[in-house]
Amino acid sequence: MDAILLRCRHCKREMQYERTIDPDVPSNVAGIESSKCDVCDDGDFGTETWFDAAGEVVVPEWA
After folding, report:
1. In what order do the strands lie in the sheet containing 48-51?
2. Distance of CA 40 to CAs 35, 48, 50, 52, 57, Å?
3. Phi, psi of 44 (to 5 degrees)
4. What is the DSSP secondary-structure string of 15-46?
5. Listed residue (34, 29, 35) closest to 54, CA to CA
6. pTM for the whole thing?
7. Virtual torsion, Cα 1, 53, 35, 58, nearest 10 deg
8. C-alpha count within 13 angstroms, C-beta hemisphere, residue 54
9. Whether pLDDT at 62 is above 80
10. Do 30 and 7 touch, CB atoms closer than 8 A?
11. What is the phi/psi pair of residue 36, to 5°?
């Protein structure tokens, strides 16, 4: 399985996310850290940061 590591900044929960589910995520993204996961979500808007395998931030072309 070609997966992306998802990590919640709030509770530190981690899980694997199948890359084929979201083909718009660039191939160099190895991990995504979100401000809140589905368990921590309080209904407010969240943010996410993309990282490559070396831990460097990946900025999407459209950003």
Report:
1. 14-18, 3-8, 31-34, 48-51, 57-58
2. 9, 14, 19, 24, 23
3. -80, 165
4. EEEEGGG-TTS-TT--EEEESS-TTT--SS--
5. 29
6. 0.85
7. -120
8. 4
9. no
10. no
11. -150, 140
Tokens of 29: 């993204």
Instruction: Give residue-wise pLDDT tens across range 7-53.
Output: 999 999 999 999 999 998 999 999 999 999 989 888 888 899 999 99
Task: Show the tokens assigned to 36.
Answer: 């809140």
Is residue 63 very low, low, confident or very high in pLDDT (cuts 50, 70, 90)?
A: low
At residue 23, what is the residue type? Answer: P
d(CA 11, CA 25) in angstroms, rounded, equals 23
pLDDT of the residue at 1: 64
